[in-house]
Amino acid sequence: MPAPTVATGRELVWQKVPGVSRARAIVIDGETWVRLRRVKVLGSLATVEAASGSWTLKRVGWFRTRVSVRMAGSAEDLAEFTPNWLGASGTLAFADGRSYRWACTKSFGREHTLFRADGQAVLRFRGGQRLTLETTDGESDLPLLASICHYLLQLEREDTAVVAAAAGAAAAAG
Fold first, then answer.
1. Which of 2-11, 30-39, 47-56, 116-125 has the lowest mean pLDDT?
2. Phi and psi of 81, rounded to 5°?
3. Which of 13, 77, 104, 123 could be joined to 114 by an S-S link, Cβ 3.0–4.6 Å?
4. Bridge partners of 38?
């Protein structure tokens, strides 16, 4: 299956996949560019499928969490995302030496951006679902990068909801 072509500056939208629970995809000109599916309701394992390959994403660790990225069926990490202390930003490091910086670039989490090591913006997310390709030059794995970033936003939303629920329960109890 050939991958749909994408150009710099194009805005893409993550949308629900009809008939598949906990799945989102980016569809370009009627063709699926990439699909991200959370495997279980409880748990962080997700699968990514694109024309260029299949991968798994999973949050691992307890006190110092990180996200491992693996080729589907492999036990070796292809990449690892290590969040900063607060978890809203961090570093995505690939085993081949490439690295990216993930950062919140507008207040209140309205915008997040993935930067290459040289400071060039690669992907920009607005509102969690809208993605703009800032550059496609030299980026061979844009579907994987877009999926990792969307997955990080999903985890951040889930963590925020847990904190809000805990705070509400504490306020109600006390």
1. 2-11
2. -100, 125
3. 123
4. 46
Give how many domains the chain has, as a whole number.
Answer: 1
Residue 2 lies in a domain: no
Q: Are 113 and 121 in contact (CB under 8 A)?
A: yes
**Domain that residue 126 falls in:** 11-167
Q: Give per-residue pLDDT as tens, 113-166.
A: 999 999 999 999 998 789 999 987 878 899 999 999 999 998 887 766 656 677
Q: Is residue 3 part of a domain?
A: no
Strands (E), the chain: 11-13, 15-16, 23-28, 31-38, 46-50, 53-60, 66-71, 77-83, 90-94, 99-106, 111-116, 121-126, 130-133
